[in-house]
Design brief:
The structure holds two protein chains of two kinds. By secondary structure, chain A is mostly helical. Chain A contains ten helices and two strands; from the N terminus they run αααααααββααα. Chain A has a two-stranded antiparallel sheet with strand order 1-2. In chain A, a hairpin with a 3-residue loop joins β1 (about 215-220) and β2. Chain B has a seven-stranded mixed sheet, with helices on both faces. The chains are: A mainly alpha, B alpha/beta. At the A-B interface, α3 and α4 of A face loops of B.
């Protein structure tokens, strides 16, 4: 079968059929396995895998919906995810009374404007709106609230939340909407490419670090993160990316480099998120014990939130789109 | 679906979107038994949170207390408290011939559940203030009604006193085990025990 002979929408449809087919097979296998008796430790692993599988399902359905519903739908869906992620982030930061107005601006002005910019394909504005304009606006509002206590710390937290949850995630619908000449209507592949290479880098990095018991690069932050594991993860992401070059507008080598960079950025972003969690005193954003009601959304989106802006910028810069 | 139902539905949706409004049933299951939920009070949003955290079938029979002078002042306030929440109105000014708890007693006799904030006013000191005696009298009069201590967490960050627009931050409502009656316990001891039962539900700060 010659894939190139298919029309664009047929190729996209094929992509989704494959994605959902793989997920379905994995879920079936998982369900069959859960019928079996097993010792406690592998049972825990089994359940963890089940949770990851559910998250993958949600991600895949979200991806499909955002593709189906076009620009507006994609922007809305990722906007909602961004809202929920920011809500989770702010919950775990200890904000004070004086932050109220700043937070309102973050949730109800910055977030919708940023996603509207993404939806309108004003990509030059997309990359500067938050780092340049919002960077000034938030501390001004905070200063006007008149609370000098821990001023820098409080503002830094809000800015950080906005950068990760809003700025980072807004690049996902932007990728869907990016227009290459001769690559019309295939933005879904670009986002799919990014998610797959990030996931590969993540899985391989963790697996390798655990298997070879490499020296942890930062013991107090993440025991399973080692330099060797990371390099292998990045390399695998590059190879997978190169193997997937045919769904992208890139040549194989370009795909290799971009995938390696995206995979590296995603895994490093995950490390940063873990450091943040240690600082906030939670083991996982969705810690059931913490009683905050956080659902662990931040854990899932962290690699994407860090990798998407870099991937987006490199793509636009190198290919001048 | 009536207009009041639709509005109630919208309100729970907004409350869920803004705060998550997660109910943690730690000491009792969410059952349709007659209950008095008594909670800490930090914001105007408290009642909506309890309401949104309750399962849908319990919402109609669980009623809040509203100050008559404030909540009947405008047609909108009156409509919301009467039609959406089925609030029990109490007057804040005490007249000689009237027991201020009478409307609550009527509601309980009628078989409804109540949600009350025994501090009487909103506090933002972290610890709840001493409880007012209404809870004690209701507990005496209606020994068959379960008393459920309730802790509402984080809501002061959602809407601090004086602000009108809520910030999206996750909140939880924790429902504890029913407070046992102790024979011969005096009012002060009972109220103090009730207050510590509420405080005991506070999630450990990390």
């Amino acid at each position: 079968m010659n894939l190139r002979a298919l029309s664009v929408s047929e190729q996209v449809a094929l992509l989704f059929v494959i994605v959902f087919g793989v997920l379905l097979a994995a879920t079936l296998a998982w369900t069959l396995l859960s019928l079996r008796e097993m010792p406690d430790d592998s049972k825990a692993r089994h359940e963890r895998f089940g949770r990851d599988l559910r998250a993958l399902w949600i991600g895949a359905v979200l991806f499909w919906l955002s593709w189906m519903s076009g620009a507006i739908g994609a922007v809305l869906l990722f906007g909602i995810v961004s809202f929920l992620a920011l809500r989770e982030f702010i919950t775990l930061m200890h904000t004070r009374r004086g932050d109220h107005r700043g937070l309102l601006i973050a949730f109800f002005a910055v977030l919708p404007i940023q996603f509207a910019i993404a939806g309108g394909r004003w990509f030059d504005l997309l990359t500067v709106f938050i780092p340049v304009y919002v960077f000034l606006a938030i501390p001004v509002i905070s200063a006007l609230a008149g609370d000098p206590q821990r001023f820098l710390e409080r503002n830094a937290k809000i800015q950080w939340g906005i950068m990760v949850c809003v700025y980072g995630l807004s690049h996902a619908p932007a990728l869907l909407l990016l227009e290459f000449s001769g690559y019309d209507g295939r933005g879904a592949f670009l986002l799919f490419f990014l998610v797959v290479v990030c996931a590969c880098a993540q899985i391989v990095q963790e697996g390798m670090s655990r298997r070879f018991r490499g020296v942890p690069a930062a013991r107090h932050i993440d025991r399973s993160f080692s330099a060797r594991g990371w390099v292998i993860g990045v390399a695998v992401a590059g190879v997978v990316g190169a193997a997937l070059y045919w769904i992208t507008p890139f040549k194989p080598f370009q795909a290799f480099v971009l995938a390696a960079v995206a995979g590296g950025a995603g895994t490093l972003g995950e490390l940063v998120m873990r450091a943040l969690k240690r600082d906030a005193g939670v083991a996982s954003w969705g810690n059931a014990r913490a009683l905050t009601g956080a659902v662990g959304l931040l854990d899932r989106i962290a690699p994407l939130a860090f990798a998407a802006p870099i991937f987006f910028h490199l793509t636009r810069w190198y290919f001048r789109v | 679906m009536t207009r009041a139902d639709a509005f109630g539905f919208l309100l729970t949706f907004v409350a869920r979107l803004i705060t998550g409004a997660q109910g943690h049933w730690k000491g009792c299951p969410p059952k349709a038994e007659q209950r008095i939920y008594f909670a800490n009070h930090q914001s105007h949003f408290d009642w909506v949170l309890i309401w949104a955290a309750l399962p849908r079938e319990l919402r109609a029979s669980t009623r809040p207390i509203a100050a008559r002078d404030y909540w009947t002042a405008t047609p909108l306030k009156h409509w919301i408290t009467r039609e959406v929440f089925h609030a029990v109105y109490v007057s804040r000014t005490r007249t000689d011939d009237e027991d201020p708890l009478q409307p609550l007693a009527d509601a309980l006799t009628h078989g409804d559940s109540l949600a009350i904030f025994p501090e009487g006013t909103r506090s933002n000191k972290g610890e709840p203030q001493p409880f007012k005696s209404g809870l004690y009298h209701l507990a005496q009069q209606f020994p068959q009604v379960q008393l459920i201590p309730t802790w509402i967490d984080n809501v002061q960050r959602v809407m601090p006193k004086g602000e009108v627009v809520p910030v999206p931050i996750l909140c939880t409502v924790t429902f504890g085990a029913p407070l046992q009656r102790v024979d011969g316990e005096d009012k002060g001891a009972f109220l103090e025990r009730a207050r510590s039962a509420v405080i005991a539900l506070r999630p450990p700060t990390t």
